[in-house]
Queue: 2 jobs
Job 1
Amino acid sequence: MRRLLITGAAGALGSVLRESLKGYADVLRLSDIADMGAAREGEEVVQCDLGDFDAVRGLVDGTDGIVHLGGVSREGAFEAILNANFRGTYHIFEAARQTGKQRVLFASSNHAIGFHEREDRLGKDAPYRADSIYGVSKCYGEIMARYYFDKFGIESVSVRIGSCFPEPRDRRMLATWLSYADFTSLVKAMFDAARTGAAMVYGASDNKEQWWDNGHAAFLGWHPQDSAEGFRAKVEAATPEPDWQDPAVRYHGGSFAAAGHFEDD
Ligand code: NAI
Ligand code: 15L
């Protein structure tokens, strides 16, 4: 890998990969609309808006792979999601098509399937059940990834990330947690794979509670090493007993499924 682009590089996961992928590619090209600080050795820093196609075309040019993390990362105003997630994700795939055959990691989210009930274990064919406009934007990104492979051969992996944080913060995350180390190994596995097609992978660590089945993605050879179980006692001591009628407990998407429409008063 000569030059790997990471969008959303000023954000939480972008900052993690900026460290953990150091040396994985000769050059990490880091991009965000926000300030990322100065480029360090082996880095290029490009500040731009994903909603600006000309800027994204220039950003993607000369790269061999794209980790597309940039965008609105939770429920928010439609206009912001429209620009960053809908427009921005189209711009990434279209720029990849125009400039070559880069493989794209699309940071999808569990909120694309957030309205499934937690007793239902989901595999690759689970129907979309977005729990938010944000979740709808992730369904759209996955469909865009599939379209660009079927028509133009642009390979991708859409990772339905669960909850990628230093440690699980609540009882739901005992099932949805993805450690930073497992996320990093997944990124490497998808770029190291001989071929990905337009795959979808659930991004969760090897947790005892399993809501998602990655059997279909065994070809990637990704084996998460961490588990939320070691945090269970701490999490349970710090959080109330679950109310099984509460939508935030019943559904995979948790509080996103329970929330009303973002733009209502
Ligand atoms: P974050 O909010 O910390 O980072 C997102 C970055 O995107 C920010 O630095 C922001 O400035 C940038 N951005 C927003 N609009 C932009 C625009 N118009 N142009 C250029 N850059 C823009 O989010 P985080 O946690 O790092 O997540 C990264 C990705 O992974 C996001 O796409 C998110 O939806 C997805 N994801 C993250 C999960 C997690 O647990 N952290 C779970 C599921 C999905
Ligand atoms: C997401 O998609 C968000 O980006 C992240 O901040 C968390 O809320 C995560 O999902 C989650 O479901 O825990």
Job 2
Amino acid sequence: MAKSSSVFVCTSCGAQTRQFFGKCSSCGSWNSLVEQLQSAAPAADTRRRRPVPNPAEGGEGQPKRSEPIQSVGERPLQRLATGYGEFDRVLGGGLVPGSLVLLGGDPGIGKSTLLLQSCRSMAGRTSVLYVSAEESAQQVKLRWRRLAEVPGADGAGAEGQNLGADFQLLAETDLELVLQELEALRPAVAIIDSIQALHDAELGSAPGSVAQVRECAAALARIAKRQNTALLLVGHVTKEGMLAGPKVLEHLVDAVLTFEGDRFASHRLLRAAKNRFGATHELGVFEMRDRGLAEVTNPSELFLGGDEPSAGTATIVACEGTRPLVVELQSLVSTTSYASPRRTATGIGTNRLHQILAVLEKHLGLPLSRFDCYLAVAGGLEVEEPAADLGVAAAVVASYRDLTMPPGTVLVGELGLGGQLRPVGQLELRLGEAARLGFTRAVVPKGTGLAKVAAGLGLQLLEASTVAAALVAALGVNPADDRM
Ligand code: TYD
Ligand code: MG
């Protein structure tokens, strides 16, 4: 090993210092610095130095000289279907050859299951290498068999008998052996499960440390780009809810996907946090069954309560990327027995709830500060966008006044602090989804210009410019009226 001076790298922002500090001087996080031997990077480079591949024969080879942008040839991206329509959409239309995708998520959420099932489907069409650094080959085989028995578990289900013919499995943690196998097989798709479990013997640090994760990923990335292999890396999420060494890997990969969900609920959500080949904030919905993951193509049904309409519920149309989701909100407002009332929200930020309650108190004159308020989004979904505000307000007011929303009503709109109802994006898409699920009334901000569209969809469009007017339109009575 060459000269071994060491630097300290921050695991949360990637900043480097020569000296150890308890607090990172760059991002301010505590105890995030880890030691890294500096000889590591150059050593890894020399070891794998080889002649520059000839662009003519390399297929995806890079030109050696710059060229005018007009003369750069455009080739359509040849995307590879993963077998799951939901997975493909989040990727931006399928796996791009030569791209690097990081799939993160809590342990046990189903990352290995998702990838193994995709492998089943892809192996019928192309060559796949699955590197299992966490489970033994037998364990993977057992699971693979279990999944393989499910008819149509791969989505298409059409690959028939040759399933697994091109599916190579390698249970290995040594980076060097994995690289060798990649070079020998030159698979179209390679899966590394997980990047934290791989280790480079030339580095002093332990597997999973920032230095290891970074070097392993960089070495894999070099080979994948050169061979045009689509590389899927599995990454674990740390206790703080971040991908281990987040900034260290994010810049290196083309897409960062996160797989999330409630361990107690069966559905799982796949999101893109970064994607060089597609839109971010796309959402894929899956359900964990006893024999693997199945895609949920109609997720709105998952997030609708499905019960009889009751007081304190309201339905909104949230938008995740280009995907509209009809979601039910439930609220419970009850007289408080505490000095400061309780406000609890699941699936929506508590600060957002506080703000909406303040707007209702000020502009509708409802004395909500004397009431506890609980709010929940059905199905465990997290709704971040402000377009849910009107729905939250309606659920709270309906619970406070003990009113039931007329059936078939959806509400969409952002609340301004002055009590105005602000326009939201992708309204046409949201209305389409609501109509598709049989909703008949939509309360929306004024000035949408979508009256014709709504009429065509069979939706009654109720436009309002303030939250007070919107609630009157939605509930059919004036909730601010004290004689209620
Ligand atoms: P796994 O893919 O091993 O998670 P990860 O790789 O993200 O750590 O998924 C593990 C969980 O999924 C495990 O708790 C059991 C459950 N599971 C099922 O419910 N059905 C199945 O068919 C499989 C394979 C797993
Ligand atoms: Mg796993």
